[in-house]
Amino acid sequence: MVNRQFTAAGPDRLWVADATRIPCAEGMFWLAAVRDAFSRRIVGRQTSTRCDTDLILAALEYGIYSRDVRDGDLIHHSDKGSNYTSFRFAERLYDNGILPSMGSVGDSYDTALIENFWSTVKIELVYRSQWRTRDEAENALFAYVDGWHKHPAHPERARLPQPGRIRDGLASRSGKPDRARIAHPATGR
Q1: Residue 62 three-state SS
Q2: Rounded to two decimals, what is the model's pTM?
Q3: Confidence class of residue 79 from pLDDT cuts 50, 70 and 90?
Q4: Are 40 and 149 in contact (CB under 8 A)?
Q5: How far apart are CA 44 and CA 32, in angstroms?
Q6: Domain of life of the organism in this record (predicted)?
Q7: What's the rounded Cα separation, in Å, for the pair 90 and 154?
Q8: How is the beta sheet containing 98-102 ordered, strand by strand?
């Protein structure tokens, strides 16, 4: 359905999802994430010691809870891993009017949007850190994920729009109520 076209006309039209392993002194654990193709933001995330359907469902639920998901407007794209092809996962997508899409087997290009995020988070955070506990790792990962792209280093100099402002601007033009805006910590705007 997606055919490696990771663009969307607006927020919450295409989500791409996957899970990856994260090391810490207590052992490996899994981080699942759901990324919006329009804003490029992580809209759902969860960790677990097991990469099972519960982990994948928890990341999806986080996204559904935190976003404006409407019946038939959203495509959820993933690989063909057993968790994404499970009956429980398909049922949850159906219950929320989310259309499923899957790439071909063993082809990371079919989920390139989320693979790109994994590469970035591992290079910028995971490979530079040594966490003693899973709690330490989770706190660092969630702080990174929740702050990712919210505040560019120099938004005034770069003249780059912030994803939240893009989404809010579209909402006001589309007749939807504006979502609360988050002030930039340095400027207060």
Answers
A1: helix
A2: 0.75
A3: confident
A4: yes
A5: 8
A6: Bacteria
A7: 42
A8: 42-48, 29-36, 14-22, 74-78, 98-102
